[in-house]
Amino acid sequence: MTSPNQVPNRKEKPLRKLIAIFTAATLSLGLGACASGSNEQFAGITSTCDALTGGSNVDKIKVEGGYGTVPVAEFETPLTSDKIESKILNEGSGPAFTGDQFIELDFMALNGATGESLQATKFDGTDSVSQSIVSGAYPDFCHALSGAKQGSRIAILFPASFAHESQGNPESGIGKDDSVVYVIDIRRVYLPYAVGTAQPAESGFPSVVRAANGTPGITQLKTDAPTEFKVSTLIKGSGEVVAQGDKVTIHYSGFVWGGEKFDSSWDNGQPAQFQLSQGQLIEGFIKALDGQTVGSQVIAVIPPAEGYGDQAQGSIPANSTLIFVIDVLGTTKPAN
């Protein structure tokens, strides 16, 4: 999207350095209750990553403090392994992480060779990190966390080859042969795509098809573009209702009526997060999401007056009618 004041440009490459993966997207403060789907909504979702595995080396890490408290980790150094090892210290009761989705977490990172602290959040929710965890990235958190539930605390041991491809990160105090230890609290797991009840197709909208991973495509109508805003629910989710002022987590694809796709979060494998408020997004995008439920997929047709008007935006010509297919993956309410 070119955000709606600008739907953001999401062409950045996945972060591959050790610490960067958990510092790329820090949560905004001042947000309250959040909803990302019930356990039932996650029940039929298949994991895209190999399930986490334990080992004798991660068992050597002793962690004091339970979920939601500042951990104190101790282990003899140097500590390493020839594979990624994970251990669930406290098991939560929320939905399980299955890969290629957003999670919110607190973390502490330690140098496994020296025991020195590398970086940590406060473990009180004020500086938790919101991050898309995808398969095939380094470090491979997708495998390290796969199957862990929301509300869990996990210890992870990454050998150098899996932590930073044995390249090290001198600025972070990591040598090329250094392993890395993490203690992670999974605060929240988001849906990877829309999950709910399919709704009857409405006339006047392009038809939508979905790949196995949820990626949508459309068949354009060979008619003149509508002159008024309209939105239709394709999948009805059973989660919380989205309202203006919320911070929403979505997947989206945007198309020009009668033209081509101009942007999609699916192309980068990362959902987007927006504050649903005036000045942040184009008016039609806000209208499309206001009142929807978590788990839903909607298609919205946005005329120029509620889109970009007579201004061209990148590959979007001036006076374009826009089509958005949006999956609602989670919402966070403003703090009272």
From TrEMBL:
Keywords: Isomerase, Rotamase
Record bears the keyword Isomerase: yes
One example GO MF annotation: peptidyl-prolyl cis-trans isomerase activity
Catalysed reactions, as listed in the record: [protein]-peptidylproline (omega=180) = [protein]-peptidylproline (omega=0)
EC numbers on record: 5.2.1.8
Enzyme class per UniProt: isomerase
Domain PPIase FKBP-type: residue ranges: 245-332
Membrane-spanning segments: none
Gene3D superfamilies in the record: 3.10.50.40
Keyword presence, Isomerase: yes
InterPro entries: PPIase_dom_sf, PPIase_FKBP_dom
Pfam families xrefs: FKBP_C
Name used for this protein in its record: peptidylprolyl isomerase
Origin species: freshwater metagenome
